[in-house]
Structures are given as structure tokens and as C-alpha cells.
Specification:
Elements lengths: L1 E7 L9 H8 L3 E2 L2 E8 L3 H15 L3 E7 L6 E4 L1 E3 L2 E2 L11 E3 L8 E3 L4 H10 L4 E4 L6 H16 L4 E7 L3 H4 L11 H17 L13
Parallel strand pairs: 1-3, 1-4, 4-11, 5-10
Antiparallel strand pairs: 2-3, 5-11, 6-9, 7-8
Helix pairs in contact: 1-6, 2-4, 3-6
The structure holds pyroglutamic acid (PCA).
The site of pyroglutamic acid has 12 residues, from strand 4 and helix 4.
Amino acid sequence: MKLLITGFEPFGSEEVNPSYEAVRRLPDALAGAELAKLEIPTVFSQCGPALEKGIRTHQPDAVLCVGQAGGQAHIAVERVGINLIDARIPDNAGVQPVDVPVRPDGPAAYFSTLPVKAIVRRIRDRGIPCRLSCSAGTYVCNCLLYQALDIAALRYPHIRAGFIHVPFSSEQAAAKPGGTPSLPLAVITQALALAAEAIAENPQDIHESMGSIY
Ligand code: PCA
């Protein structure tokens, strides 16, 4: 199985993005999966085309996009991408769209087609905090998740796709106020490797309760 795994370039006031820092530290192959890695611009108009170019180049069986969710203390496996952009800050091209669709006339939302619960279970079983999430927000990460699923639905129906948000790395948080949630970069990298293995091993998702009431 070939997995295209992507991380984002730094954005906002950050000098690194732990998503790509972890992605680029992954091996080129691990249990059952060959990995192709790609850095994606944190730009609304460029992220989808950059991903589709990577799909054309690498012809993967599955796509896992990864982004930074500063302020969270856990790995978040995203379940849904929505057709909405509402940017809190400008993207790296200086553009800040508010209340516009990712694709006009596109469906309201897509569910991740990765085995999201199998990924959560595998990461948690190794003692790394991880949760299933029902919202990837309304910034560039959700925009990329939506487009990954849209591209797959329209042009690459055999490709499974989805998204994981990771916290600040501890190395990055060291320069921030005390108490800023983070995980060491090595742990984030290990979590992504476990996610890749879960994707390779689970053509179908597992079924166990992971819902939330908020
Ligand atoms: N995180 C942002 C965009 C790029 C990234 O790494 C987000 O959560 O939307």
C-alpha cells in the first residue's frame, strides 16, 4: 500500500509546523506501507492543487494530511470535512476569506474515508493521547481535508483520504507561556507512524463507541 502523507508549512506567528516536521522524520516504509511525503502551502487557494499534484505524481492508495492544532494536548483524528471557510487569521498569501464555501455547489460535508477509529485505538494503545474529532475547524486544514475528499470522490474513487491534527511540539512550546499544551516531536512522529500502520492494516474501520456529547 502506498500512502501519501502531507504536512503544512508554518503559518501565523510560528516558525515551524510540527505537522511537516513529524512527516519528514517518518521512514520511507513501515509495516505494510510505502510513504510519500509532501509539504503543503498554508494557503487556501494553493493547498488543494498542491495535494492533487502530489496524488498525480505518487498515485497513492491512501492520503493522510496532517496539520497543527495549537492549544490542544492530544492527537485529533478528524472525522468530517465541511464545505466552509471562516478564517480567523490571514493565510500565508495574506488572504482571509470569511463565510465562503470551499467549493461552491459542493456537498455540505464529507466523512473521512480512513479507518478513523482504528487509528485512534492504535495510537491510544501505545499511551499517546488521541481522540476522534468531529470538526477540523474552518481554516486551511479543514479546507484541505474537504478538498482531499472531494478530489477522491470526483476523480480518484479508489483513494481513501483523511486528516489528523497534532498539537504544538514540546520543542516549539518551550518558547511559549508555561502550561501551553504540547507533545514531543518524537511522540507526534510515532503517532503518525502508528496511524500509517492502522491505515495499511484496516481496509474497513473498527466499530466501538468513541462518540462525544459536546
Ligand atoms: N494548521 C492550520 C492550517 C495549517 C496547519 O498546520 C489549521 O488547523 O487549519
